Amino acid sequence: xxxxxxxxxxxxxxxxxxxxxxxxxxxxxxxxxxxxxxxxxxxxxxxxxxxxxxxxxxxxxxxxxxxxxxxxxxxxxxxxxxxxxxxxxxxxxxxxxxxxxxxxxxxxxxxxxxxxxxxxxxxxxxxxxxxxxxxxxxxxxxxxxxxxxxxxxxxxxxxxxxxxxxxxxxxxxxxxxxxxxxxxxxxxxxxxxxxxxxxxxxxxxxxxxxxxxxxxxxxxxxxxxxxxxxxxxxxxxxxxxxxxxxxxxxxxxxxxxxxxxxxxxxxxxxxxxxxxxxxxxxxxxxxxxxxxxxxxxxxxxxxxxxxxxxxxx
Amino acid sequence: xxxxxxxxxxxxxxxxxxxxxxxxxxxxxxxxxxxxxxxxxxxxxxxxxxxxxxxxxxxxxxxxxxxxxxxxxxxxxxxxxxxxxxxxxxxxxxxxxxxxxxxxxxxxxxxxxxxxxxxxxxxxxxxxxxxxxxxxxxxxxxxxxxxxxxxxxxxxxxxxxxxxxxxxxxxxxxxxxxxxxxxxxxxxxxxxxxxxxxxxxxxxxxxxxxxxxxxxxxxxxxxxxxxxxxxxxxxxxxxxxxxxxxxxxxxxxxxxxxxxxxxxxxxxxxxxxxxxxxxxxxxxxxxxxxxxxxxxxxxxxxxxxxxxxxxxx
Lengths: 313, 313
Prior knowledge:
The structure is a homodimer. By secondary structure, the first copy, chain A, is α/β, with parallel strands linked by helices.
């Protein structure tokens, strides 16, 4: 297997656990890193001080590499990066913004920088900005998403033929079978969100985890496209937004109904009706709440089985 | 390689050329069937008499199996099926409607019936209706599409684990690499539209073919969701619809702006601004107008190469 991703991070398996709001604190990141993947602390739902606490705890919970995901559109990005540098974090995934602004700052501090994109155009900007690798995330992914709506199947091969950086596929992947398919399309590794959001070590509210494993196909939809497109599980809040959008609501009206703290309310506090529930389409294929380490092992076992299956075609 | 699809149709390669409006007449279907795939005449843009003419010509242009695609929402479905039975067509793909109504009629006439679905729920209905195989089509596909917006990556494995019928993947596939990925996800064969829409034997207007090979990622979007969701290339007509939708247009208003003959105007007559241009996201990966037979050969060559690549991981 091509080892560009495993070598870059110094990990055993090319499985990255996506940095997610309200789900991926130090417990989840350390569990994935201990199992041979790359765990990411999701800083998007943390104040700088809380992030620092999570980094410190993660360092004492694993001797393996781990990283921090930083959505660039959140406030306090500067303080977040200050904590990251101070704590000697070696790997940073940036998303939801331009890679131009922070990449050289991070690289000057010896940090490996990975940026998340949803289009070929953004991938080319990453090359210009000097990032070390990119995550290409398809339309089926949970949470924030691209305006182009390009799916994993269409996006990965196109980016692979357009740039030569180590490429990590995201969106729709939760199993070893999906990992083989993503790598057949041209990725060197995979980033997995939803499956880990429903893991034992995820800090998501138990009710939200339960909702994930009960999800059927068609239970999520990309919404709030006039603000920032986000894939949500259908619930009371989603239906309200959906009706407003259908009637032509402006971005101002949508920002108002969204208000503050919707994702915390849904994903962390377990208000399944009024909260924002960010999750991917692949939630329909997730049926158990498992320890994150067992998820990594199961994926790698299935990966090997499916690989052999293909050899025997 | 699992031979459930090739055996069912009596073909050499598990590559089905999608039946498409304004693109797939007898020339394209015969070319694909002659190359070892399964060509489909797209009846959606044909009056029953014209369809009959295409069937007759296709029979004299190939000795290999071919079929007809019938979108069930079009008028004159009854007359279409009458011609199909009279001309002794052996394979029918139905789409855009329920498989319950016509499947037993067709099977009573010794016809192999395949139905196109976009959700697990519809796949289960196909089993009930007694179809012989199903095509599962993802969100990235061109033309009419499902309300669930489930992508190929999320849809195929879920349907594969839910039903045991021969499964054909569609949406986002244009290359041998895509074919390997689709089959890794659990399909036994692939249905390819956009790539053949841009082939030499396609009856699409040369200007539309040129537009397809120039397309970049993000150049299509699923639209007209309040009527029947359809993936269109962005152009003047699309922008008009998109603005109306954004302002909350009703389905009645959208039906009015759509009018009659939009897809003919765009795809067959070459009016790239005012016409409807149905095409998939994978158009961004299509760079040449090739003979359909060469497309089949190229896909199979790449399929074998990528398969070996995976064996050596």
